[in-house]
Design goal:
The complex is a heterotetramer of chains A (about 500), B (about 100), C (about 475) and D (about 650). Chain A is mostly helical and about 500 residues long. Helices cover about 75% and strands about 5% of the residues of chain A. In chain A, strands 1-2 form a two-stranded antiparallel sheet. Chain B contains three helices and no strands. Classes of the chains: A mainly alpha (about 500), B mainly alpha (about 100), C mainly alpha (about 475), D mainly alpha (about 650). Chains in contact: A-C, A-D, B-C, B-D, C-D. The interface between A and D is large, with 53 and 49 residues.
Chain lengths: ~500, ~100, ~475, ~650
């Protein structure tokens, strides 16, 4: 079994075992074992990747290609480069943390973990596949479990949010489908056979009119899940209603599919279309960056604040991708990773706070530093990380994005860059606002004086997410180099 | 082949017959009469087949045979329809078409 | 014309034999264990299904009135499997409701003869055979729809079906007569050579098309569907929505692709319009349905609209995708109907809000339902997704991107109402939920087969390649 | 000569921080205090050793102080642009190392007494170490991005330390304010960096500052709105500096920052962090000087001058001694800025630059001393307000004397440190810009006045009735006072012009007697006025204040800058921007998405009549469909 397909096999096996599990204890143990195993595989993959990369300079390594539907030339073809390796690592970590965080899942635990793992299968598959069809399949597999996860285990208006989220994402994927078919049927522009294989299509130069037509479809199709500005409204409600672990996976991993897809498919296969449209979408993205930050400023529900900050941060990702240069792209990938960890951490903490105080309304909370110091301190750290403090991953990513974006020769883009740079101040404002109101100050509510202390599994979950944030922030070089060299072929493809 | 009458007259007739049937089907209140209008429609095509066969392609008798079969099938159809109608009549003692509208929307 | 050429009609002859045998059996089985007729029938039909899989060589009989080839043969097998599953699912219902009144045999005879009609219809070589097959497949179903003689709505649906069917067949007959007028033959092979697009032939095409569109229940010829499904016994509803629709789709496709190929520039636009109308109307109506049968009726209308996306391609790709989709659709829809039938048999409840909290009481059943609905909605990795995706591919290969776009919009809409059912079953919790019950062997068997189909058919690509080869003579 | 060992200077405090931060709960307070002190002691020793090495052993090569750089790539942006981490050793960085080490060490020692018994003692020392680490890193930075990184880090440690009493809402607010205001200024800094990076292709100080380098020579190549883009970049960078050094209009955070513990104010908001802005300008001095003939530098000069005057005026009116000191700090920082602004480049022209650094040095000493003294007073009587103080000289003699020394130093009385540096500044101003010179003189007088106002207010006047008689602070607190007092006395005699000049060559500086005399005279007048007003209880001061009337009121309310900012943030940002956006999101964007869904359902409700249940309607639509299709395809759509 090759090293990549294991990422699909192992979760499937986990599910099969889970089916026979009884009760909370067994199911959580099984899923814990499974996810730890995946984590191990991801670590192993990183090292294997470096070893392979030393001897093999193909765009994708560990490639495997099995013909699936030969009439359509559909293959189950997988492979990774530095970017997907990094994202896979992110995913495994977040999933593992998610399992820890949902250690005390009361209602239908088995089903919960099964759907969680199904979701992760979708994500893994998406990241490793280099065949548009396979990619699309995994994309939808990743999205659908959200409905059950939010709908069954959610809080608040869960049915509404779940339906909204699912429909918007599926609608997006429907648009995406048209785009993919468009690409597919023009993949023989140079007289070759029709193909879904990304790498092969990248060699074809698709006519400009076609690119102009299908780039927006493909872009929007992916960007909706990346919370592109007018289509982001599924995310706040979805986050707010989802159970903790789901919010973590969702914001931490699922929303990354957007950026990754845009990068892998829209940008890479339709470069001229990208160049032609970038001005328009870049405006949307820039709006999203500032708009999200301002919207977060006004919220009082922790999850909403975080959701909007995600809109802002992921806006930066799309923004950087559309800048079409290496540094910005590097920044975009780094931002995806760092946002993945940070926001997952945030949601984990919010979940713990909510689980203890039973409210997410910041105005009702106060002085938590006194009563639950560990969680609060970590929250402060996460906050500082997310406002881009040096020494944390956010800074590295954002600086790459800003410097890269500012290298653009067109003044218009540089002005937009400055605009979105200004978002970091607003970010600081809303983060510190929350920290000030919720963690500092006097304890607002007598009941808070006796909150349960943080448990071992919560600690595990938190540290699991915190360590990469600091690691990326302190020593970014190896990661960014890994990504940069993987970006090389794309640069040649696009520019 | 009838003297002095070209195929057009007959086809016009059958078309008229057809639409009379349709009209009856749409307007009659009584299930039985709706059934009769269906017969009109079928007969329109029966005549069509015969006439076309006779006027245009007299050498092979496809149309004629077709029409025979149509008549037979039509009989079966009517029989079945009648039986169902009777069954309905047993229950609601009515054959009015307005009484079979309980299922809608 | 020698004896072994009758073996070409193996399906038909066997089925006929079974029908006769059942009549005989009816006489000899003694009163106190009428139930055994059900077992007998299912057993016989099972054998028939298996025998059906033996290869048949390609040829035609009766001067081309009856023809058969690999694809037709394969499709007959699909129908067989469908009917078999359907019988398995409705066995308990028969045992409990029908056999008491000594009407078990009638049921089987009617259903089998209708199936026989479909055999003739899809392997017909001229319009006469086609017409006979059509009628033979329609009339018994009307009788079956009115089968629960004690229920008023059952008779109503029977009448609605028979009247609409009569009208439809009348119209299409008129169309056939016009085609006959333009071409001078009712044999497909002759027609292909001579047919051209004159006003008369176009009119004939439209009228004839309407007749089949009625059976596939395409907008605006679909209105009977919902009412009939609702009134008829569930097994008949599912029979209508799966078997007869499938057969009609198949023959329509074959006629359009072979006989009426010269008129393609006409009918592809026609299909284009009707496809859009069908998808939207079907979905929009399905949104509000509470009764599961009506719900599935409209959903199946929408599905028919999707099928047209494959038909519009007009070549081998179209044939393959359509057959493939129909195959998957058979399993998905049968699964859905099966669950509905099981529940309504146990509790008599057929409304969506009765399903609330079903997962907590009957997890297995709800999971089957979920799979079926996901397959209908086209969610990977279950089969439905692949079927739909390939249909869209077929349409896109002709450059109908707008049509595909509207189709995917409709997929999203349809997802909404499929999720409504899932919401009722999984998300909601109700204190008067349907209590836990165990299904009988037949029903379970029927459901398991469908589930296997749903899970495997999509991922198992050789099947698709096989169909592709079968349909090789369409380009 | 290799100075790479200086990397230890920041790393030791970092280690201390991690140690104390992670094992916060485990370590006993006493122990953590010692860990902090000794950690910093180590850094200080290394700094002194490095200073000795540099200035007296191996720094000079043919009469010019060399720049030693030792760095490694931390992150790559493009082929040319990358962030390096490393140490840059040149006169000013060494000088800053000394300043930071001395003050920080003193403050550490002092805090062991001052913070005794406070829960969070360990946390306090952890934060102090974090700050020391960041400050050292900032000082040693080799390029713009490294300095920006540590710039942010000192910002956050200041945030943490101001908000040290996090249960006190005012402290929380102050911390937030400090961080956000400086962050806002840093935005300018960051954009400036981006522009520099884009147009010059490097972040390195060496490359940028090289007078023959491309960065300086081709400043005119691209211009934007009439100014060179480089000039714009420099102005933006200066905005960043102004934010940290509390220049107008970014000064508002500094007074509030006094909510933090007094040692913190002494270390961060008097001696070290706030001078980062000056340090930054000095660091880029060649660029400021050469690009567009020092256009940006003039802005620096005027901003500095105005800020110092502005702050001095406000300082007179404040009643909270720490706030008085805060404004005095701001005023002195303005002084340094002004000095930089009026400085030339080579030879004796560079006196302003030299003086600015000199004043930075001396000011660090005596201002830290003032704060610590104030701290010891506050420690004794638990109040910040002048009205609660008086006649303390008999209770706490050491504090009294040291405070007096510091006051004299800041008032510029010879032979105290302040006198020398201030004199050089005035010389530089006099030579380059008379207007600024006059402002400088005026400020000198005001400084002397308000400083002695509080001195007399605290230690003279008649006793207030204290609930328990105040007593002198413990040795751990008085010892630093004495050390710093000593430095404030002798600090002025260091021949700075030998060591620190823009062209690093060094020159002979000699006292300019007439100017010095004027300065001293003005200072004395200030002191005497203060003596008259505040030595004894009398109502002269109030009369005087009333004489100024409305103007006094303005000054007392700090010219309503806070209100202005509040208005901008609360009224504009929250009410006019954020709230509408939130509303827009809910009511427009979201509503549109939902609207699509609702419309669909509504439509399906509307059209349900089609399914009327009448078999004849069905037949009708059937036939209608047929007819329409027939017509369409026979007559209309015939292709």
């Amino acid at each position: 079994m090759d090293i990549l397909s294991l990422f699909i096999i192992v979760p499937v096996i986990t599910i099969l075992v889970l089916i026979f599990a009884k009760g909370l204890k067994q199911s959580r143990i099984i899923s814990l074992v499974g996810s730890i195993f995946q984590f191990g595989m991801a670590i192993n993959l990183v090292f294997a990747y470096f070893k392979e990369r030393a001897v093999n300079d193909a765009i994708m390594v560990f490639t495997k290609d099995v013909v699936w539907f030969k009439q359509f030339n559909i293959h189950y073809s997988i492979g990774v480069d530095g970017i997907s390796v990094a994202l896979l690592l992110l995913t495994t970590i977040v999933v593992l943390a998610g399992v820890f965080i949902s250690w005390k899942m009361k209602d239908l635990p088995k089903e919960f973990f099964v759907s969680l793992i199904v979701l992760s299968i979708g994500v893994y598959g998406f990241f490793i596949s280099i065949d548009l069809f396979t990619m699309f399949v995994f994309f939808e597999i990743a999205v659908i479990p959200m409905y059950l996860l939010i709908g069954i285990w959610g809080t608040g208006p869960r049915e509404y949010s779940a339906m909204k989220l699912t429909l918007m994402l599926m609608g997006a994927s429907a648009v995406l489908l048209v785009g993919i078919l468009g690409i597919y049927f023009n993949s023989n522009a140079d007289g070759g056979p029709l193909t879904f294989n990304i790498l092969e299509i990248a060699q074809v130069n698709i006519p400009f009119e076609v690119q102009k037509l299908f780039f927006p479809l493909t872009f929007i199709g992916f960007a909706v899940i990346g919370a592109l500005f007018p289509f982001h409204t599924w995310s706040p409600d979805g986050h707010a209603s989802a159970p903790t672990a789901v919010s973590m996976l969702h914001a931490g991993v699922l929303m990354k599919l957007g950026g990754y897809g845009v990068f892998r498919v829209a940008m890479y296969l339709l470069p001229e279309g990208a160049l032609h449209w970038s001005w328009f979408f870049i405006i949307l993205a820039a709006i999203g960056v500032v708009y999200g930050a301002f919207a977060a400023l006004k919220q009082t529900d922790l999850k909403y604040i975080n959701a909007y900050s995600s809109v802002s941060h992921l806006g930066l990702v799309l923004f950087a991708l559309l800048m079409l240069n290496k540094t910005a792209w590097n920044g975009a990938i780094l931002q995806s990773l760092s946002h993945g960890f940070m926001t997952a951490l945030f949601f984990a903490l919010i979940g713990m706070i909510y689980g203890r105080t039973h409210t997410r309304d910041v105005t009702k909370l106060g002085g938590l530093l006194k009563v639950i110091p560990f969680i609060s301190v970590i929250y402060v750290i996460a906050g500082l990380a997310s406002l881009g403090l040096p020494g944390f991953s956010g800074f590295v990513a954002e600086m790459n994005i800003f410097v890269g974006a500012f290298q653009h020769d067109d003044i218009f883009y540089r002005v937009l860059t400055i605009l979105s740079v200004s978002a970091i101040v607003i970010t600081a404002v809303y983060i510190l606002r929350v920290v000030g109101i919720m963690l500092m100050g006097p304890v607002k509510n007598e009941a808070f004086l006796s909150l349960p202390k943080v448990t071992w599994y919560e600690k595990f979950g938190i540290l699991l997410l915190l360590i990469p944030i600091v690691g990326m922030g302190v020593a970014p070089l190896w990661l960014s180099n890994m990504i940069l060299e993987s970006l090389q072929p794309f640069i040649q493809g696009v520019l | 082949m009838i003297e002095g009458i070209s195929i057009y007259e007959i086809l016009t007739l059958t078309s008229i017959l057809f639409f009379i049937g349709v009209y009856g089907f749409i307007t009659r209140k009584n299930l039985i009469s709706i059934l009769i209008s269906v017969e009109l429609i079928l007969n329109a095509s029966v005549v069509n087949f015969v006439v076309i066969n006779k006027y245009l392609y007299p050498d092979v008798l496809q149309g004629v045979y077709f029409s025979l079969f149509i008549i037979a099938v039509a009989a079966a159809e009517t029989a079945l329809a009648i039986s169902i109608i009777i069954n309905l009549y047993r229950q609601i003692s009515s054959v009015e078409v307005k009484d079979i509208e309980t299922m809608k929307y | 014309m020698n004896i072994d050429s009758f073996l070409l009609m193996r399906h038909e002859i066997l089925l006929l034999a079974i029908v006769l045998l059942l009549i005989v059996a009816e006489i000899f089985i003694n009163q106190n264990k009428k139930g055994s007729i059900v077992h007998l029938a299912i057993f016989l039909f099972g054998i028939h299904t298996i025998v059906g899989f033996f290869a048949i060589d390609e040829s035609s009989l009766f001067g081309g009135m009856f023809r058969t080839n690999g694809l037709i043969h394969f499709f007959k097998n699909i129908l067989n499997i469908g009917v078999l599953v359907l019988l398995l699912q409705s066995a308990d219902w028969l045992q409990e409701k029908i056999v008491q009144h000594n009407r078990g045999t009638e049921f089987f005879i009617l259903m089998f003869s209708s199936l026989l009609g479909m055999y003739f219809m899809i392997s017909s070589g001229d319009f006469l055979m086609f017409y006979l097959g059509l009628e033979l497949s329609t009339l018994p179903v009307a009788a079956l729809a009115a089968f629960e003689t004690t229920k008023r709505i059952s008779s109503e649906s029977g009448i609605k079906l028979i009247l609409s069917a009569a009208l439809a067949s009348g119209v299409s007959l008129f169309g056939i007569s016009l085609l006959y007028a333009t071409t001078g033959s009712i044999y497909f092979n002759d027609i292909i050579e001579v047919i051209t697009s004159t006003n008369l032939s176009i009119l004939g095409l439209v009228l004839f098309f309407a007749g089949l569109a009625f059976k596939i229940s395409l907008v605006p010829f679909h209105f009977w569907t919902a009412d009939v499904y609702e009134g008829a016994p569930i097994s008949i509803a599912s029979y209508l929505s799966v078997i007869s629709k499938g057969a009609a789709v198949f023959i329509l496709m074959i006629l359009l692709f072979t006989v009426l190929k010269p008129l393609m520039h006409i009918w592809e636009n026609m299909v284009y319009i009707i496809a859009i109308a069908t998808m939207f109307i079907g979905n929009l109506f399905a949104l509000r349905q509470q009764n599961m049968k009506r719900f599935l009726a409209f959903s199946s209308i929408a599905q028919a609209g999707f099928i047209l996306l494959g038909i519009i391609e007009g070549n081998q790709l179209g044939v393959t995708t359509v057959v493939y989709f129909v195959l998957i659709y058979v399993f998905s829809n049968l699964a859905a109907f099966g669950v509905v039938q099981a529940i309504s048999l146990q509790t008599g409840k057929e409304n969506m809000n009765d399903y609330e909290g079903l997962y907590r009481t009957n997890p297995k059943l709800s999971l089957v339902m979920m799979l079926a609905l996901f397959s209908l909605a086209g969610i990977p990795p279950v089969a439905g997704f692949f079927g739909k995706f390939f249909l869209f591919t077929a349409a896109a290969s002709k450059g109908y991107y707008l049509l595909v776009f509207l189709a995917v919009v409709n997929v999203t809409i349809s997802l909404y109402y499929y999720l409504l059912v899932i919401r009722a079953m999984f998300l909601r919790q109700s204190d008067h939920a349907i209590p836990f019950f165990k299904n009988k062997l037949y029903m379970r068997l029927g459901l398991i087969i469908t589930v296997l189909g749903i899970l495997i058919l999509g991922l198992y690509s050789p099947l698709y390649d096989y169909i592709f080869e079968l349909s090789s003579n369409f380009n | 000569m290799n100075f790479s060992y200086t990397i230890l200077i920041p790393l030791i405090p970092l280690a201390v921080f991690l140690l104390l931060g992670i094992f916060n709960q485990k370590i006993k307070p006493a122990v953590s205090g010692y860990i902090g002190v000794f950690g910093l002691l180590a850094s200080a020793i290394i700094s002194f050793y490095a200073a000795y090495q540099y200035f007296f052993v191996s720094g000079k090569a043919d009469g010019v102080y060399q720049t030693f750089v030792d760095k490694t790539v931390w992150m790559n942006f493009t082929e040319t642009l990358h962030i390096d981490m490393g140490v840059l050793i040149d006169p000013i960085s060494i000088m800053m190392l000394i300043v930071v080490s001395v003050v920080s060490l003193m403050v550490h020692i002092y805090s062991r007494g001052y913070m005794k018994g406070d829960d969070g003692y360990t946390r306090f020392f952890a934060f102090l170490s974090l700050f020391s680490f960041s400050m050292y890193g900032l000082v040693l930075a080799t390029n713009l991005f490294q300095i920006y990184i540590f710039w942010e880090l000192v910002g956050v440690s200041s945030y943490l330390l101001i908000g040290y009493y996090y249960t006190k809402p005012s402290a929380v607010a102050a911390a937030k304010k400090a961080f956000i205001v400086t962050r806002f200024a840093d935005l300018g800094f960051l954009i400036g960096i981006l522009i520099i990076g884009y147009y010059t292709g490097t972040f390195d100080f060496e490359t940028l500052n090289n007078p023959e380098g491309s960065a300086i020579l081709n400043w005119a190549s691209t211009s934007f709105m009439g100014l060179s883009v480089i000039t714009w970049a420099l102005i933006l960078i200066f905005i960043g500096g102004a934010g940290k050094s509390a220049m107008l209009p970014f000064h508002i955070w500094l007074p509030d920052a006094m909510e933090g513990p007094t040692p913190v104010s002494a270390l961060i908001h008097a001696a070290t962090m706030v001078v980062a802005g000056i340090y930054l300008v000095a660091r880029l001095f060649p660029m400021f000087y050469f690009v567009e003939h020092g256009f940006a530098l003039n802005i620096v000069a005027y901003v500095g001058a105005i800020s110092s005057l502005f702050a001095a005026i406000i300082a007179i009116t404040q009643t909270d001694i720490k706030r008085v000191l805060a404004f005095s700090t701001m005023s002195q920082l303005g002084y340094m800025m002004l000095a930089l602004g009026v400085s030339g480049y080579d030879g004796h022209e560079g006196v302003g630059y030299m003086a600015s650094m000199f004043h930075l040095f001396t000011h660090a000493m005596f201002k830290a001393l003032l704060f610590l003294g104030a701290g010891s007073v506050i420690h004794a009587i638990h109040s910040n307000y002048l009205k609660d103080m008086g006649g303390l000289r008999k209770y706490m003699p050491i504090t009294n004397v040291t405070f007096l020394i510091a006051a004299l130093a800041i008032a510029g009385m010879p032979p105290f440190a302040g006198f020398w540096s201030k004199d050089e500044i005035l010389v530089a101003a006099f030579e380059h810009n008379k207007l600024i010179y006059y402002i400088g003189v005026l400020v000198a007088g005001l400084t002397a006045f308000y400083m002695f106002r509080i001195y007399f207010g605290i230690f003279w006047g008649k006793d207030r009735e204290y609930e328990h008689t105040p007593k002198e602070s413990p040795l751990s607190m008085t010892f630093p006072l004495m050390v710093l007092a000593l430095l404030s006395i002798v600090g002025g005699f260091i021949p700075f012009s030998e060591f620190i000049t823009p062209d690093k060559a060094g020159f002979e500086a000699h006292l300019n007697y007439p100017l010095a005399a004027i300065a001293v005279g003005v200072g004395l007048t200030g002191i005497i006025l203060a003596w008259v007003f505040y030595k004894k209880e009398n109502d002269l001061a109030d009369k005087f204040a009333n004489a100024f009337g409305i103007f006094y009121k303005w000054a007392f309310h700090k010219f309503y800058f806070d209100e202005l900012y509040l208005f901008i943030t609360k009224k504009i940002l929250f009410k006019r921007v954020s709230a509408p956006i939130a509303w827009f999101d809910k009511k427009v964007v979201d509503a549109t998405m939902e609207g699509i869904g609702n419309k669909t359902v509504l439509t399906s409700e509307k059209i349900k009549g089609m399914q009327s249940g009448k078999v004849q309607d069905y037949a009708f639509s059937f036939i209608a469909g047929v007819v329409v299709l027939a017509i369409v395809f026979i007559y209309i759509w015939t292709n």
